[in-house]
Amino acid sequence: MRSPRRHPLLVPVLLCALAVLAARPTDAMDEDGSTGTEAGAQVARLYEDAAKATRQYEDGRREAEAQRSKALEHEKRLDRQRQKIDAMHEDLGRFARAQYRGGGGLPLTARMILADDPEELMRGQRAVSRVDLAVNKAIAKSLRAEDRLVADEAKARAAWQALEERNAGLARLKKRIAGKLEAARSRLEGQADASVAAGSCPGAVRLDQPDMRLGRSWVSPVETYALSASFGSGGSRWANRHTGQDFAVPVGTPVRSVGTGRVVKVSCGGAFGIQVVVQHAGGYYTQYAHLAAVAVDQGDRVRPGQWVGQSGSTGNSTGPHLHFEVRVTPEMGSALDPVPWLSQRGVPL
Question: Do 25 and 187 contact (CB within 8 A), yes or no?
Fold first, then answer.
């Protein structure tokens, strides 16, 4: 039997190792068992799910509107057809009344006996019969057309109702995704703050990149945004003038490299929080700051539109946004106004 005193330092060493592993911000586990990098990927996936659901909702809404227009057109055609049928019925009634008045209500045999010209009466009677037959056929045809229109209208309305139910389902789906997205954003933001506080950058979240066959050499750093603080603006938030252009976006929004380049810096801490700096041809550098997560490592090559990170509110930030800079060196202090710089490259903001 082995003695418990054989390795007296084994238990303390194991406990220390477990404590170190538990304290690592990049390996922190959420209640659902996801790590920091997994939470970043989850936010990106939820963004894609929300965008897909929104597209489905809009497609369904447009289809429902088209179906509604079709149903209204059916109704108009029905109204026109009913007016024609009413006119035919009225004409037939007038003809029947005139016929009755002309014959005095007598049977055809009596009218032939009393007529001055029986043959003329018969010819008129045959003409009347032909007209009557033609009118009856027209009425029957119109009635069949009305039946078809009523059936078509019923189908259109049923399809419209089904589309409305589908849109309602899509709206519920969007709501569920929004709830999941909000929870994932909160986890991502909390993990980013913990990483910055610990001074340890989380590892790159290797996101599933979008289709980057954009056909453009330069793009905006985020797809959908509202411009907030601009280059050169002043205020109590900055020691000097604002050195970039801010894009107001929710936490977890994919941040894109504006052009082809190489990642020269990925860092955490300080006023910019988690940030990425990319070097481009011509001696220019772009900075993406206050991120919640990064999707690249230093030395990576990137293309226009490639995701380099996800927006957040780390560092000196009063709310979720992307701080974007254009510089002539990789370090702060050499910034240019990014709005005209992008505009010159075909990217108006």
Answer: no
Q: Kindly tell me if the per-residue pLDDT of 95 is higher than 70.
A: no
For residue 278, what is the enclosing H or E element?
strand 274-280
- Tell me what pLDDT residue 29 has: 44
Report d(CA 201, CA 269) in Å as an integer: 8
Phi, then psi, of 348 in degrees rounded to 5: -75, 140
Residue 262, judged by CB atoms within 10 A of its CB (0-12, 13-18, 19+), counts as middle
Per the structure block, which two tokens stand in for 7? 């390795």
- Render pLDDT for 20-30 as a digit per residue (tens, 0 to 9): 333 333 344 44
Q: Which residues pair with 247 in a beta bridge?
A: 227, 322
* SS3 category, 286: strand
**Long-range contacts: 54-60, Cβ < 8 Å, 24+?**
54/174, 56/170, 57/167, 57/170, 57/171, 57/174, 60/163, 60/166, 60/167, 60/170
Q: Report d(CA 26, CA 308) in Å as an integer.
A: 18
**Residues 21, 24: Cα–Cα separation, whole Å:** 5
In this structure, are strands 274-280 and 307-311 parallel, antiparallel, or unpaired?
A: unpaired
Sign for the pseudo-dihedral over CA of 95, 98, 100, 102: negative
Q: Tokens 């003409």: give the residue.
A: 127
Q: For residue range 191-229, what is the model confidence (pLDDT) as tens digits?
A: 888 888 877 776 777 766 766 666 789 999 999 899 998
Residues paired with residue 322 on neighbouring β-strands, in sequence order: 247
Please name every residue paired with 335 in a beta bridge, in sequence order, or none if there are none.
Answer: 327
Copy the structure tokens of residue 289.
Answer: 């700051």
List phi, psi (to 5°) of 103.
-95, -5
User: Alpha-carbon distance 316 to 337, whole Å?
Assistant: 20
Cβ-Cβ contacts under 8 Å for 73 (sequence gap 6 or more):
none
- The whole-angstrom separation of Cα 190 and Cα 311 is 13
Q: In whole angstroms, what is the distance from residue 211 CA to residue 214 CA?
A: 8
Model pTM score: 0.59
Q: How far is CA 190 from CA 6, 40, 178, 313, 314, in A?
A: 43, 11, 18, 10, 10
